[in-house]
Write a structure and sequence with these properties.
The chain has ten helices and 13 strands. The chain has 325 residues and is α/β, with parallel strands linked by helices. Strands 1-7-6-4-5 form a five-stranded mixed beta sheet, sandwiched between helices. A four-stranded mixed beta sheet has the order 8-13-12-11, sandwiched between helices. Helix 4 (91-99) links the parallel strand 4 and strand 5 (105-109). The relative contact order is 0.20. The structure holds acetyl coenzyme *A. Acetyl coenzyme *A binds at residues 29, 33-34, 37-38, 113, 152-153, 156-157, 191, 215, 217-218, 220-221, 224, 252, 254-255, 282, 312-313.
Length: 325
């Protein structure tokens, strides 16, 4: 059976780096509070010429360059994002135009921070049916455009950026082995972002506070740890692996304390968990593909390695995915 294999990775971070010390000038916070509660020291914040689709396109170009695949040979472009450039058309359509990938169809998906992992599962299913397909999957966010910069509970957590992978089919031992994805829409209000205000007065809601990220941090923390632990253990069992078989775990980069709790519950060694959130903050759907690209460029991924992804985000959405590098 053909499997989807990652042929190349790429990423793009905005030029401007905003440190915790700079945030101290904007809201009542401190480097000590942010670093000790979250592990975040700085984040990249987009400026002019760094719209979501522009970061996404650069990340996509870099991933394509690794593979030598021409944009015209792409069959599909998927962008996972909760901060699209426009509501319509999709960010993926902007990327298609920028790349000149005229033979591809293109669309966005939104599964919040879990979007890239959902997208990888989706791309894997396409490729199982059509192994000759070439798919560009991107996670891209400009969350700086969507946070309330007066709300210290949320604005210190997020950052901007994009990561991309190019996928094709393989018949060897590599590729996506399986995934375990979940959602629980009943818990939507633990982490959410309103749309712009409705132009139809009948559709306005009393609790509308503006198109910002809102979050119940404590509840999200507890759910994230438990749900990712369950998704990882169930997936490993299903495929006959134990956590000791995993060579590298690349989790969603939200918070160092979530990752520490998760690591301890799973019993995974610290040096097997790839962490880069101190530099980037939480880049939502972009966090795992940025981390994948960084791990790849640092030589942390070797052919045949068992790679475990796990993720959690608004929706709620969460899951895990196993692939052989
Ligand atoms: N600077 C200083 N003080 C702050 C800040 C800040 N930036 N933000 C909140 N505080 C204050 C609060 O107002 C509160 O003050 P009070 O006691 O006077 O009311 C105090 O700090 C403690 O707040 P808590 O919410 O109890 O702090 P906690 O230790 O739980 O940490 C945090 C908060 C970091 C948000 C934590 O709950 C968390 O990490 N949750 C997970 C959320 C997350 O990672 N979300 C990302 C999106 S979801 C995802 O990607 C998985």
């Amino acid at each position: 059976m053909s499997r989807a294999v990652i042929l190349g990775t790429g990423s793009c971070l905005p030029k401007r780096i905003v440190t915790n010390a700079e945030l101290e000038q904007m809201v009542e916070t401190s480097d000590e509070w942010i670093a000790s509660r979250t592990g975040i020291r700085s984040r990249h914040i987009a400026g002019q010429g760094e719209q979501n689709f522009q970061l996404a396109t650069k990340a996509g170009r870099r991933a394509l360059a690794v593979t030598g695949i021409d944009p015209q040979d792409l069959d599909l472009i998927i962008v996972a994002t909760l901060s699209p450039h426009m509501i319509m058309p999709s960010t993926a359509c902007f990327v298609q135009a920028e790349l000149g990938a005229e033979n591809a169809f293109a669309y966005d998906i939104n599964a919040a921070c879990a979007g890239f992992t959902y997208g990888l599962d989706l791309a894997s299913n396409y490729i199982q049916n059509r192994p000759d397909m070439k798919i560009l999957l991107i996670g891209a966010e400009t969350l700086s455009a969507r946070v309330n910069w007066q709300d210290r509970n949320t604005c210190v957590l997020f950052g901007d950026g994009a990561g991309a992978v190019v996928l094709g089919g393989t018949n060897d031992e590599r590729g996506v082995l399986g995934s375990r994805l979940h959602s629980d829409g009943a818990l939507w209000n633990l982490l959410c972002m309103d749309s712009p205000e409705s132009n139809n007065p009948d559709l306005r809601t009393d609790d509308w506070v503006g198109p910002h990220i809102r979050m119940n941090g404590g509840e999200i923390f507890k759910h994230a740890v438990r749900m990712m632990e369950d998704a990882v253990n169930t997936l490993l069992r299903k495929h006959g692996f134990t956590i000791n078989d995993v060579d590298i775990m690349i989790p969603h980069q939200a918070n160092i304390r979530i990752l520490k709790n998760l690591r301890e519950r799973l019993g995974v060694a610290e040096d097997k968990v790839f962490v880069n959130l101190s530099k980037y903050g939480n880049t939502s759907a972009a966090s795992i593909p940025i981390a994948l690209d960084e791990a790849h460029r640092q030589g942390r991924l070797h052919r045949g390695d068992l790679v475990l992804l796990c993720t959690f985000g608004g929706g709620l959405t969460w899951g895990s995915l196993l692939l052989r590098w």
